[in-house]
Write a structure and sequence with these properties.
6-stranded parallel sheet, transmembrane helix, 18% strand, Rossmann fold, transferase, 15 strands, alpha/beta, 7-stranded parallel sheet
Amino acid sequence: MKVLITGGHLTPALAVIKELKKHKDAEIVFVGRQYTDENNLTLSYEYSQIEKLGVPFIHLTTGRFTKKFSIRTILNYVKIFFGIIESFLIIREFKPNAVLSFGGYLGFPISFVAGLLHINVFIHEQTIMPGLANRIAARYAKKVFIAFPESKRFFSSHITSIVGNPLRNEIFHSQDAPFGDIGQKPIIYITGGSLGAHSLNVHIENILPELLKKFVVVHQTGNVAEYGDYDRLAKISLEYKNYIVRTHIFDSEIGWLFKNASLVVSRSGANTIFELIALQKPAVLVPLPWSASGEQKLHAEILQSHHVAEIFDQKDESLALLELILKVYANVETYQHSYKSLQKYIIPHPEEHIVKTILSQS
């Protein structure tokens, strides 16, 4: 049984891969982005994580769907065309029995070609507002798994199954403190996702002196060379034992960090939202303004409407972010208690349901 996995949402993909590997007859390959960008040969985070699992990784170059027309639009559609050709060659060589896509621009060409070749296509849609790539690919899908019940209206009901979002087990298990002597102040975990968030990094830098008076700050910056955020902030961290700067937070560290952090400041991608709900962590959310169909803002509004998080617009002044952080921290227990109304979104072991369906229907 050969399963090709692709798409832009890594965390649920890793959870499903680990579940698939329990089945000895399952042969897995992952198709994704090997480098952080086309002009930078720094290996991507997804490549390093897939490699750790011992799963073969195949690099794919393709383009993104864009809504506004420009020269870049033409270049993107040319890249998509060549991405489809490259996907055909990959599928012809690997000969999968099933393709599982976790969405995004990387998932489209593989799903499209697999559908044309009558290979079983399965899609997992994490977000509340599916992107164009997944909505098109769903036309060729045998089954669409969704995380948010609200996104069911975008897909044919007879192929859609609400399974929730696969979460990494590591967030539930705390190991020894990974950061050494950081003092006794309450901890804030700041993250812009696996790639980091430049604007968030700048805002945190602006209010850092005030934050460090009251908190231990663990700051995951990403490692985008264009901005040099990590290098700049790492130098600042040498002056403070209560400021920890990392390009990434590893699985061996994340459980301890989530357990001990009083609150989280982050983007509002689907993975983050589900992890916050599962762990009932109060948060200040900074939606990515140009996320597909405004999905991150919609995710953040769900948590805000249940009074478990506040929203910061990255166009606002940094001091407004500081005020929200202090507000949430001052009312942490109230925010935590309000999470009870959101537990309906947490469905146990969705990765098991996904794997069982793929193996039984392929």
